User: Fold these one by one.
Assistant:
Number 1:
Amino acid sequence: ARVVFTCAARLPYAGGTHRGVINVSVRMFIMRGVPHTRTRSHSLMCKSVCLSVYNYTTAIQAATHPSIHPLQSTAIMPPSSAPSCRRGSPNIPDIDALITAENPSRLSSTIIRLSGDRNLAACRLFREALSRHRHAPLACFGSLSEKMFLGLISCCVHWGRDGQADEVMEAMRELGVPRSLHFYAAVMKIHAAKQHFSKALALYDTLVSDGLEADSVMLNCLLHFAVDCGQPARALEFFDQLCCMARPSVKAYMTVLRIHAKDNDFRSSIRLFRMMCESGVEPDTLVLNQLLSICVNAKRVSLARDIIDLCLQHQPDILDTISVNTLIKGHAIQDDLPSALDAFEALKALGMQPTTITYNTLCTTAAKCHECDLVWRLVGEMLSSRLQPDSYTCSALAKTLQLSVERIDEQRMHWALTVLRQVCIRERRRAAGPSVTGGGGGCSGTDERPMATTAALFNALLGVAREAYHIDRLCDLMDDFGIKPDAAGYSSLIRGFAKHHQVDRAMNLIHEMRRDGASYLLCNTATYNSLLEASARAGNMRWMDRVLSGITEDGAPPNLITLAIVVKAYCESGHLERAMGVFEELTADGCVEADEAVYNTLLRACCSCAPPRPSLALSLVEHMLTKKVAPTNVTASICVSLLGKQCGLMDKAFELVLKRMKDDYGVTPSPQALSSVIQGCNFERGIRVFQLMADGLTPVPVGAQDTRSLLRCGRPEGRHHSPEELPLACLHTRPWPRPPIERLSDGIRVFAEGEAVYQPSNL
């Protein structure tokens, strides 16, 4: 029976089955055990375990067994007639047997003994006896002592019967039992042990109504009770009473400082600190740091600096790293980077070791002030000092990387990767066990931020990675610590693979994303655009076809960038028909609206392919004008070059380009394109183009080079047209430049190259 009972006692409570095991084992021990083996230790074990499962009846049977306590005159009931074991329904000993003339205090002694064992039967005995003998309580209890009432209150509070505890207090008042200051202190202690601070605080009013005055110890406790109950005004009243009665402790001053800290009341805090020093209580480091924190939060950084200077003169021992860190934090809040650096140098001059919080605060402030070089210098010092970076370091570095992309050298990239790896290791240890805190302590040094800051730094490093081995190290971090980049991070990684001609790795990464089911990443069009760009740079059209099929499978909506990349890649590789197929497919349902750059790319392809495709170019221009896409000067130049020079469709070019585009959109071909047309056509059309240029068709007027091209057009090599063949309108375009010439009387200027143009002498 003892073995069964011991096993049942060590089981955690798990419901009715466990309670049944406890009941059976205890009854086996009580009812069938050998009488001389029922020792007190076994009986107390039965009682404690029964109370743990709220089996009060069996607990009373174990606690009041005749072999242990000769108070129970009746025999223990057999299991068949045992009462039900319900919480709060213990067996009550016979009151009439306890009230005897020979021993009138036997009942009160029994109540004191049961309440000392935390037995609710004491409360039942008290209430039953009080209901029977309310008019003669002394005849029932013998004597009404504070000890009995204190035991009853303790038992009720222990089992969560606060209402019954209040009834005991009320009965004590009705019976006229005097309550001393010691009694109130003990009851407050009982309530405070159960975190019932409001109950303990309410006793003070009862104490005052009884004409008692709290001592310094009680006032100190009441001060903390009021703070815990959220009554700062009453806490300050208790503190004032405490100051009038005795010298408060450092803990009391610290408690009042915390009250002022919630309101950022730096004036009251300074007065309290001055009163503390005048009363002879030496402030410690905690009080000083709390005072500095109040001043900094109230944006009184100069006052905090004056306090530190005062402590350096009179009591430098109470200064620590947290004190200077608080001052640095105040300067950081005001974005005063020079003052923060001065405090940092003063910290090192005092022989104190900067902590991770120190460097994090300075790095964050420097990043806000766009001092990227200073951030990297501080990170290098932190790593050389063997301090552990945390998520705040990652956040500052991520912002710095976004500001100084062009200034990331090899050393800085190594520092950033080192910080990222150390923080990842720290996060893994924190997730696996107790949190790992950084050295130095302080306001926000523990690394409790989520992995979002780590992912932000990882994404920023993906965006600035320049070398292939940097990308390899980032991929190793992904594999080792399970870091998941966002869509922009994946795009940066794919672009990095593309830059180093690793299209296979980019495609494998896409397959891993699809295999992991990261739909929120797969549906990102920017990722696929990066992969299309990688395939285009590598000139691998087979990979591009696979990417296009992946876009369709994953439902990523293509955009204008997708169309531009694909069309340009196919056109540059000589697949004009495939480019036109993708163009028609993506623009057919109106999901993508092509711009002038896409049309210009297709027009260039029509011009550069062999043979040229003037009919396709004309249809593209018509489609472009139909879709209300404004052509540009580049569009006009391509059309003039293709239709006029290569295909001899000068009239069509003039009609399309020199009339419709100029009249409707105000665009014209470039002077270089028109000059090339002049060189490639006959003399009559060359004169026509020249006249159009002279009329202001192009923003740049014609010059001597255009005139020379006109004189050469349609003539064999080495021969030119006579200047007299040029119309007069072609000669009145602009004053000609002044090369080394010889002026003739008839107004002909002879160039050094032997070419001549006609210019009237009146010009």
Number 2:
Amino acid sequence: VDADPLRGFDQIKTNEDFHLWHEGIDKTLEESNEDKYMSIISGLREDLESCVKLTSLVENAETNLNTILSHRSEIVETTSRFRSECENLVAERKRLSELADALRQRLKYFEELETLSAKFSGGRNSISPSNPEFIRVLHRLDECIVYASSSTGSVAEADKYIAKFLELQRRAFTMIKDYTISSIKAVAGSVQREIPSANPAEPSLTEASMEYLRFRTLAPKIKSLMSELQSRASNSKLLGSSKASTKEAQREASRLKYRSVSGNQDTLSSTRNLAFSLLADCEEVFVEIRRKLLEPSVSAHMKSIADTQDMIAFARQSANFIVQLCVLEKNIFDHYFPSSPSEDSPALVNELQYFCNMVYEELRPLILRENELDKLVYLIEVEKNELQVSDASRKGIVGVVFGSSARRIIADSQERIIYRAQVYIRDEIRSFKPDDALHLNYPQLILDNSARLDAKAVVVPRGGSLYSTWYPPLERTLRLLSILYRCIDPRVFAGIAQDAVSTCVHSVLAASTRIARTRKDHCEDHALLFKVWQLLMLREQISPFDVDFVYAEKELNFKELRTLLGNVIRGHSNFRLLATPPHAVQEKVVDSKRELEREVRAACEYFILSTTRKVIDPILSFLAKCNALPAPGNLSSQSNRVQMENDESTPRKLGPFEQLKENENSFAHPARIKETWTSVNASLESELPEIIKRLSIYITKPASCAVLLRPIRANISEASNELLSALQTRYTLDERTAIAIDGSSVHALMARVDAVIASALGPAYAGINIASSSTPSAPTASPRVTPATTPAPAPAPAAAPAAASAPGTAAETPAGQE
């Protein structure tokens, strides 16, 4: 390329020169660029040749490496095969060595068959269960049986050897059984020969007595043999594996344990069943021998107790004697037979149950002959509390077995109590025939009792004067309920209580009717107060019993079904209606408590109404007559009075009531009204104190009396206010002035009512607000004796609630405040 790019530029004169110059420049540039590219191409060709040579070298190296890897794999495979063959040879050598050892060991166990056969054959070389070597030989037999069972299928004639070994085991177990039974019978025979010298009616059964001491000397030998049977009868471990006599046999049994668990299940089951059966036979023979040995003396002792003691004492003594006997029998049984942690021996349970049933069999006739409810209830309390039947499971098998017999005694006692309770309700309550002078002489019975107590000034003795004023059916009903409560089933008690309360209510109502028919002064008032008092007392005393006095009675009524069948037969109804017949069972619910509440309310309301009428009957009669006549205009109005004064010259027509006011003999005449008010005040001073006095005889608590008197006072106040309102609307001012009855008169009347009540009730009335607006529905009764002196009716206080055992305590709270 020319160094001067503008060379020749100064020679350009025309356009053609320029174009020529320009083309020369382009050609020069192209030539210079082509030389550069050619040099690059030449370098690339040299590089390509170098790469080709390098690639050839790499391929040759790769071929050499693949050859080397192939040779290495062959060497590794050959080495591994050689090592595996060496290991197989070592394992085969070890297996053959173990097989040789096993063969030698197997021959040793199978060769034991002849030796063991000689031991248990019963010949001259046989071994007795009393020999100390007997257990060791028995363990060796177990090892042979385990091994032979594990060899089934791998050793020829293994099944035959198993059968022979099991036969030897059966002989050994039978030898144990025969030895045990013969030894026990020998001891029992020696004891039986010496028993007649003692008095069987007074057995002294203790740990040191002859019946137990002789048996205990034999127990260690027998128990070791029974332990062997027990261990094989249990399913908790492999047969004999834990009692191998040598370390070698232990290792062999442990090795075979995991190889033959499925193969020797039949053998284990056969051995277990045989051992269990023979052990059960030994236990049954033992308890049968013990039962025959003790039964005569125990039976004689039980009969001697029954002949000399009453039912309760017999229950205590016989129960204690039998429990002591069962404990001794349980101990001697444990000396012979190992105890099982899972369950008790059925033979021992049967033996203990047999002795416990002797108490039940002796006590049952006494229960069925007993007619006194107190003793039957007391027997249940003895069985439950003193003998702790409910806690029998904590005393072990003896407590459980005796508890079942005690529960049978309780069940029989409850059945007898239920029957005697029904008889008691029928004979002593429903069929009670009161004597007018002895049982219905009210209020003289209460007054005499109060005077007697005041004269003695002593505490009422138990069972003394508290019930002397009560009507006998009421006292018997409450006593019956207090006895039965907590000693029979609540549902059964509810049925009996319902019947007793209903019967008592009807008896009280009948007694009230008889009192009302007597010819004494105020007999009807005393009959009513007697009914109120007795029903309130009954309601108070049954309130602590936590039961429903409800009885549901179901009866069959086919009246609707008979009508439907008649209509279907006559064609009046479709026969398809018979697919859904009407219900024939009807339920009738009897609620004695609701019936009692209804009678109490009716009696109290009748007393309040009758007392109100006796005191203010003239006012009530006047108001009733006034309400039957139309009222005239409001004579108290000022405008009406002025109009009447202005129209004095004009004659006016008088109404019916105004005409009666003009008649001096009419009830509406002001003078008659004044006489009515005077008579009410006189009745208030004469009748009301007597009524309150009679009321306080039956209900002595002032607060309870105030509950009944409060509605009476309210009625008097209401009637007086209505009278005052009638005077203001029906009479003129002058007439009211002549009558002289106004608001101050009404207040004075009510003040006299309060004074009369306070005077009749005495100092105890102080502080009681009888004018309170809250009026309870019914009061509570209160006996005339100190509540703290009330006796407990039942011989066992726990059988009766507190309120039933102390009838007076519930009377301290009026019903409206409960």
Number 3:
Amino acid sequence: QERLWRMGGGGERGEEGNNGDEDWAYVDFEVGDGQMWRLGVYHLHGGQLPVVIQLILCDLGVLLLAVLLTVILMHWLHAKRLLAKISVVGGDEAFLNKANALIFAINPRMKIFEWNQKCQDISGYKKRDVKGKNASVFIAPEHRHHFEMIIASCMRGNDCSNFEISLLSKRGVKIDILCNATVRKKAKKVVAIVIFGQDVTDFKSVKTDMNHFQKVGKELRQIINNANTPIFGTDMKMNVNEWNARMAELTKIPANEAMGSHFIQYLQDDVKGRIQDVFASALAGGEQSSLELQMPIVSRDEDAVDLLLAVKGRRNHRNEIVGLIVFAQDVTSLRLLMLRETELHKVKAANEYKSQFLATMSHELRTPLNVICGMNSLLEDMDDLSVDQRQIVEQISTSSASMLSLVNDILDLAKVESGQVDLVCESFDIRDVVEGVVRSAASKALQKDLEVCTFMEPSLESIVNGDSAKLKQIVNNLVSNAIKFTDQGHVFVMVQLNEETQRHKTYSFKVYDSGMGISEESQKKLFNRFSQADASITRTHGGTGLGLAICKEFVGMMNGSCGVSSEGPGKGSLFWFTCVFQIEDTVSKLIDAKSAVVPSPKLRWQKWGVEQARVDKHSTLARKIRILCVCQAGTLLDCLSMYLSVYDSSLAKVYSLKEAEELLASSEQAFDLIVVAPPNANLKGGVHPTDFSVTSPHPELGVPVHESMEMLMRIQRQHTSLYAILLGSLAHQQFLIHYRDLQKVLFVVRPIKLSELKNAILSADVLSQQHSQQHCNALPPLKHPTSPGGRGE
């Protein structure tokens, strides 16, 4: 060491501050590259460090120096890159992460190289998850094309602002972002695109909700304004701030006039205090209240509108009461209805007392009237009455019958009004009911020389379940009216089947007449009670106007309808109605009963030509027969044609016996049956049978019946195998008794019943077959039968 110290040459000993315990020696030497190094050797006076340790310590110092230089170099390079990045993005790292906006940067290849903390928080993707990936992957598919167009525009050096994109979060949720894109250039070349964004998802949701709320509010306002319920609102001072159209219509106060006014001023003085207390309670948070009040329309008229109000406090978004909303209900009409209902109950009570009185009086009147009618009928049957006496008896009969009819109508009306009329369900034949009613009314028609007939399709099943009495009363009323208001022509009744189901049948009944007709105005009131087409009708034809009203009630009870039609005065009329009847198993029992063997119709005399055969109602002809029908043109001929066509499809029709005689003489084919319907004889003033003789007919009877019988006898002499059916009216019956000894002539009363006509045809066919098996003698000459007193019977 001493030698080494000396070799240093320029070395100096340590300074005097070292207490002489330590010294430094320096040795300069040249390293291979020409550099000079000075090596210091630490010298301790107590001893010296080994050279090896000293060398090791020297190497460690060099190594530490190299590491230090390396770290400094690395920090310098990192700082340089960081400054370059900051220059591109526009801020330092801390600023980017602390920024409240989304900031991310992409290079020209759309690769993400910056992704701040806000982006991580919103999207859920960490920086390491997105770095180096294409930015389009994290954009919603519907916005990718738009985003790529924005980036393309930025690559051309253009900044883009205020564009929206939807960023896809890690959970797949779309995040709406409002963005601005800024271009970063280096040497006039775009090196990066920095995108600043703001999350507007909640804002858009709020905006959508606000638009929805505004739309709903607008719709609610329209609903309130167009509501049929009166609605109005007030503020905390009870000033009107809502007044819908219905409220304006009801009060006659327009909305612009009512707005801002104090609502209490529209109330009556006697209710102002009570209503103000209720409103004050509602404004103070009280429960909903309902009350009834009268609100005068003071601004327009003095009428009062009755309202039922429901009052409730109107609250804001902080649940604070800011006013009242009032829903009103107009009960004015309800109050009027209640008043009218009270009056109606009084009227009904009075009407019920009236109905009871009418029913009682009708019963009391019917008893003596029935006695009068019965006693008068006995007087009519007496033969020793003079002409004057008979006229008095007939007048009594007519008047008592009218009185009894009126009493019956009043009784029926009283029963209908009191609800005491019930329908009876029984099996009956509609055809028999209608034909029976028409025949019973025929006597009145004969006095006017009217032809009355009915028609119902022969093949139509007519047995049903229902109330036959009510049906009979309706048909009788309509037929009687038709005869009453018809002076010439005909009355025709038709029955048709309208509808059929498994349990019900609906029939229509039509009554035609050629009478005086009805105006269109009068048709509207015909079925009203105590109403007639013209006031003069009561004076001319009588009646009370109750018949059609009762018919309407009965038809309604049978689930039907009724009406009238007429082309005008002088053109006839048609009255119609429909009824629904049941179809029950019991109907078959009636059909079986009516299918039994029944005798042909009996006449009022015991012997009439030949004894008619007993035939089955549902039997048919054993052979085909030829029928000749003799009848004047009109409704009767039409009905006969439809009835007789069932037995002879090639039915021959002529209008008089003279034409029939010519046809029989010229026809090559013989006829088996001739059906004759002579014209009606008008018995004016009444003709007694004892006043008639065949040789000298009564002057008021005329000659139609006498000539018809003479010609018929002549035809039968020429055609001995020809049977005849004479369709005579009730008037003919009084005089045709003088011809009761005639052979091969059967008599059927008009109006025709289908069952009687059918039995007569079947009887004629049976008798014709029996006659063909025997020797046919010529008819004896006509003998004029006389009575014991020498006068014709």
